[in-house]
Batch of 3 targets.
Target 1
Amino acid sequence: MLRLISGYRRSDPPPPDGRRDELLELAHAVQAGDRAALRTFLAQVVPHLLRVARRVLGPQHSDVEDVAYEAAYAVVEGLSRFRGEGTVLHFACRVAVLTAMNVRRRDAAQKRARGVAGCDPDSVQAEARDPEEQAVLGALAPVVRELLDTLPEPLAEALALHNMLGYTVQEVAEQSGAPVETVRSRLRLAKQALRKRVLGHPRLREVAEPLLREEAR
Amino acid sequence: MSDTFDELSARARRGELPRPEQQRLDTFLKASFEARVWHEAGRELDAEDSVRPGDHAAVERVMKRTLTALSSKPRRSRRKWVVLLVAAALFGVSAAAASVQGVRWWRAARGLVVSAPAAQPQAQAKTAPPVAQLAAPRRVDAVPVEVAAEAVTDAAATLVPSALVPVPAVTRASPANKTDSAGAAALFSEAALARREGNAERAIALLDSLQQRFPGSREARSSDMTLGSLHLQRGAAAAALEHFGRYLRAAPRGGLASEALWGEAQALAALGRRAEADARLRRLVERFPGSAYAAAARVKLELAAP
């Protein structure tokens, strides 16, 4: 009984792809209160959290580092809730996605409060790095990010994990705790929303016209 | 399942798609504008994912903030549970003891106690007649709380069966290992501090010492990465190469393996071994296509192509 409460250790579940989860042992040690393990764990995880925060918020966003910090804290605090669905790294990245999405939604709410429209083509262009790149579908990343602010949360999460981080459908399902078919359905809706958004964007629509004609054939 | 567009798109972005499946993906992309936009958006996000100057410092800042925040937060330790369990056990035992005493008193009061138990010392039998037992609970009520608590603890020490004494949680390391771990962690932290203060020489000395004194520790393994970066910054490419290589040999798919390959490529390039550097970059792209360093490696390889 004491072991159930204090010294409880799950047997290490095999990760879905059959590879050993490098961080699992460290995560156990962190949960057991090993300070040295905590440092090593953070050294391994934080670079990924920074990357995720950058992807979701955009490379130039001023809160990237804050989001990585909040996510790192939440990951360590939430390790006790990790039940071996996917890898520890996937779990950590999902926490970062959700943290970053909260920041995006907060920003969007502030913008709305100031009377600025959610989708501002000028701001999309300002985020793009290279005008030529933008002309050849180069402005899609900011459009995807904006989409995160407007979609219902489960759809936004599926979009972020699959499209932004490149998780497979199975991995998204494991992380979000939803059935695979539900994830597929969410992704289908997110794709439709992205299409709609691209076609509603004057410059992107211009570039997209030939592709649309190809599709119609 | 694997032939759906979503799977193909995700795996293509990781560089895991064999030719026949790539052809299937191309078919999807040609047929559907939606799929094309989706896939292109993902690829664009991948390409954006390059390593930035100052990333290492940002990681250290985030780590420091997190460690500070976590250490200032009161930990919900396992000890709390153990203490609660001990308290519950003590309460149960003292309640049982009290009820036994109560029964004795009740029996004595009704003249049912015929004789003291055989094991009871004679003196105690003489000085503690049934009436005294009757009074005992009342006296305890009058004792200050601290003293009562001590008495309960003393009693519990003799009364609690060994099965109820909490066994320490399964330890992950012997005391010696714990000391090692603490020593390694202390050196690692000190080196990190020296590094943040710009004292690379001291950081290197501390990390070298860490590796010599605690060669099997996690910190020693991670310190190879830090030592590699520090040597690279100081122009000691050969030493950097050795450290990155050592990390990769110890953890070929470790969390920092992509960074180690990137470091090896940089060190090899600094040593003028371009072909080997490119080979490392290609390996990085193949093994970790989704990593933060893969996009930068692709760009380097494209620039290096004739």
Target 2
Amino acid sequence: MPDKINSLEQLRSWYLGAFEDFEKSLNGQSSDAFHARRKTAIQHFVTTGFPTTKNEDWKYTDLASVASTQFLPVVKPGHIPAGRIDPYLVEGQNILVFVDGYYTPALSKRLPHGNQVLVENLSASMHERDFPSEKYLAQYASVEKNSFAALSTAFLRDGALISVPDNTVVEDPLQIIFCSSERAEPYIVHPRILVVAGKNSQFRLIETHIGCGEGVYFSNAIAEIVLGENSILEHERVQDETHRASHISTTYVHQSRASGYTSHNFTLGGSLTRNDIVVELDGEGGEATLNGLYLGTGNRHVDNHTVIDHVRPHCSSHELYKGILAGRSRGVFNGKIVVRKDAQKTDAKQTNKNLILSDEASIDTKPQLEIFANDVKCTHGATVGQLDDEAMFYLRSRGIPVDESKNILVYAFASDLLDRISDEPIRDKIREVLTRKLDSARK
Amino acid sequence: MLDIRNLHASIEGTEILRGINLKLNAGEVHAIMGPNGSGKSTLAQVLAGRDSYTVTEGSVLFEGKDLLSMKPEERACEGLFLAFQYPIEIPGISNTYFLKAALNAIRKYKGLDELDAMEFLKLVKERATLMAMDESLLSRPVNQGFSGGEKKRNEIFQMAILEPTLAILDETDSGLDIDALRTVADGVNKLRREDNAILLVTHYQRLLNYIVPDAVHVLVDGKIVRSGGKELALELEDKGYEWVREQTEQVIEG
């Protein structure tokens, strides 16, 4: 067993040591323009460390297991078995695959879009001076305020970069898959995404996080999404990490005037999961839709925190999160809606529904409304329930066995989140993944 | 086919059924009529296996087997079907998916091969035509957004697919306009056979103009107080339930 990290002192020395090794491994890149930011970021991280349950935002999610583990950085990508990513692949021409954080061309597909749409790995350009994404990268994920963003930025070597020019509609979905290999020692990866959507652009993005085998790893995912005026993005996110993995993710979305962002966030795997989605509606007439489904089985812990910040007037947000909690799993949902003083005519709706399938499963759900404007419409509601007895009896009275009846009703509970995905091939793919997951949860 | 003897059942300590005796043979249609709260629906639910009711006394034999010891799904697999008074809505599950799961569960129980998608679709189309069922209802989620009439028709359609030996129709006629009532009754009549039986639970006589029963039983306060032929229903319609109640009380007092 490797040693444990027991204090901020030890954490500091562990991660500073890792950073030194990382710097060496960067070769020439440690002299690039971005490196100063890495250095600032590691200092921020080792000063604050990981949040503890004393922090109100982390009250229900204890990171002791993550904070105390000596995660090794990945020096060389591992091997993933053939066909591992296939169940998650949607037919399409733009697929970026990262294994242990490293871009893997052999598994990826990239078609040129008349040199317009940029779908590539960050490392291809970020060592250049004035690289195109520099004005966005690590600008939204604040290294001062978020220790996970700090940790990610400190060790930023590669990631997915998607840049869609003004007035461009991309028909084919853009897919990014992060796959973690099986390793004997606990290790850490930092999946990173930057999306820059030009004015009037429109596209879809599927972000998938999976792993292999029995190893322990910590996936610290950061995405920054910058939506230009009148752009539209539908973003599907599927997290199906392995059962010993910790997955902590933060997605920052910055929306300009009249832009539309829709997120479908499926949390299906991992031992410990925390997702933060922070949406800033920073232009009039913006619309944000956050949909999510989280599945808890066994001893899993699933925490979803969302923040929708209405900065400007006439924006609307809709949020529907549903949880299915079985076994001894624990769910957390915290939905914060901020309406700033100038954000008049805001229309915000938030709903959280939970289905508890066992006496030992639990959920902590909390809406958090901070409203500083006076002419707004904000509604929220949360429910926690069990399978409906009458519906169970109806199914059984038709000859369907108890287990199958339960499965049908659980699927029925989840189904409207699938129905909201507008693209059929993507919807069908996620439906397959979810159905397999529910079937195996029953066994 | 069905032999109910001295059946007593209660819910949360309140006795609802207080000694029901009823015999139903293959090929027969019996109607159970009674005022609100007489225990009609309770009888239907107890026979289908709803566990919120407790059977405190008596026995029920279904084709010679002890019905009360079976789980609801076993009863269905053995050939019992309950058309619900208030069919349940199940969002997200299509009617066809639901029916396929039900039919294949029953076939599996009987040791038959499950139907594949093509065979199933063929059966569904054929029965939908027979039942004058709007095919667009098949792909919609179970009962969701259906009108009252559509829900009742969907129950009879399920019956047509599952082909039970004993069908219990719990107030399938309630709330239907005359056209919907005719369609539903017409569907039921098409499913009548020498080897199956139907128990009609109803509040109103008018259904019996369309589905003519072999026997009518009047249920009052958890007991069958009168049994007779189809003319009993007409008499009841004419004189009202109070008439039976008074007569019963006279008998008890006398």
Target 3
Amino acid sequence: MIAFIAQRLVQSILVMLVVALVAFSLFRFVGDPISAMVGQDTPQSEREALRHSLGLDAPVPVQFAHFVERAVQGQFGLSYQLARPVSDVILEKMPATLELSLAAAVLSLAIGVPMGVYTGLRRDSWLSRLFLAVSLVGVSLPTFLIGILMILVFSVWLGWLPSFGRGSVVQLGWWSTGFLTLEGWRALIMPATTLALYQLTLIMRLVRAEMLEVLRTDYIKFARARGLSSRAVNFGHALKNTLVPVITITGLQLGQLIAFSLITETVFQWPGMGLMFIQAVTFADIPVMAAYLVLVGLFFVVINLVVDLLYHVVDPRLRTEGTRSAHG
Amino acid sequence: MAERAAMGRLRRFADSDLAYSFLHSPIAIVSAVVALAIIFGAVFAPLVAPYNPFDLATVSLLDASNPPAWIEGGDQAHLLGTDGQGRDVLSAILFGSRVSLLVGALSVVFAMVLGIGAGLLAGWRGGLIDAFIMRSADVQLSFPAILVALLVDGIARSLLPHELQDRIAVWVLVVAIGLSGWVQFARTVRGSTLVERNKEYIQAARIIGVHPARIVLTHLLPNVMTPVLVIATIYLANAIITEATLSFLGVGVPPTEPSLGTLIRVGNNFLFSGEWWITLFPSITLGLLILSVNLLGDWVRDALNPRLR
């Protein structure tokens, strides 16, 4: 187990170094950071002095080491577009994205799992067929399309919900939350639904497939033969055993949520990190792009790591086998 | 002779399992009809479209923001209405699907070539090259494709001079989407290569001294292609979605040569002034296109996979 954790940690650090290298190359080779900082009429000698004082004339590996050192401390320099420290901008935007992703994750689990169980148990009922057909459409339509159609129906035609922003937020220290006001909740409904829809259909299909698989096994037949109530069999025995893959996929999908929040945030003008990143891409704001990249990379690596470890905690069979297959 | 051979081939196709499965799957037929209709409209857009939306001579601001023909105030000349600059929405959709399909198809080809190349190399050479390629694939796979595409697109944008950007936007997109999608192809090809390389026909070719490059390209490649084609069909829908998403986010093709995603992005600005048709009709077209291609892809996968029968 310890060997496995150590191996995974080393792997994660390697991945993070690769991500940092990409981010660093952005800084170093895309445009000249010096000309991005100084005015056009700065003399060459002053530029060289600045270059030296920033360590930009050092050998590239040394510069990379410096970059990693500062990145670990959360320093990514100034945003070209906003002329503010990137870390401040990100800290300011992070709560919006995390609240949106959290709401979407809860929504997709709270609706996806029951729908999956239902379609797994009553696979031939018309409601199951309807769920499956709708889920196919949900998987097929791009996120932004669903968002726009929702805005068209619920904001433009019906006028029920606000179409952009977070409503009113309450400041708790550096964290701004929309959970404490009615306006905040109303503003959250459409973005969270849009973001959750894809994950919801995925979870539903996964739970359904796993239920169908488990219901065929001998221990379920045996549990029925023992005369247990169908509720105990379906939920106590069957559902419990479908949860291992569901945990894995949901964990991994949490990362997907953060990535897809890019699109949702743009559609609903939700002031989070995704919207910030899109604006950075259109303005070629390298420091913000690099910081977002490293942050999202970190998110993914941590999530992958935690899911891997959880998997081993939840499923004892993997503990001996897993260390071997992890090499493959 | 050639005619008879063609007839024979047609007859053989009509008798094949594939045709049988197609003719007995209403979903496959309907999606094929929808997909073909959109593809036909896109390919022959200059002939089919009532107007040329890029010909400034026919576009008049006086016609701007007309509703669809069946709504009061609609103009019979513009079936689906006009956009904010007086362009015919139907024509814009036809030309837009052209760009969407072109970028989608080219990205699939690019991802396929890249993936097949990497997969063959990894599977055939093994060792360090294999480890390197497959580890890179693993790392990339842990990030969502849309992020990878956005990143490549962003880097290309910062590297290229401004005036060039609009003109080669299509190629930048193809590279970005292709780079985000090669992994699946590479994994599949590597897997089949590992199986095929130890078979007798490959060993025979080696023994009689065929050049390794020739073995790989003419003997091995044809035998690993079937799963690749299935993945390509399914990936086409993904590529179209990615293109539309990037264009919608404003980092795809420019409004001067709009794809469906760009049209939706532009139309989105008119949503609140009540001009819903500018964005709704391109959205419906995009949705139908993706859904039908997806369903066709599913059908191809099931039809070619004997285990699922």
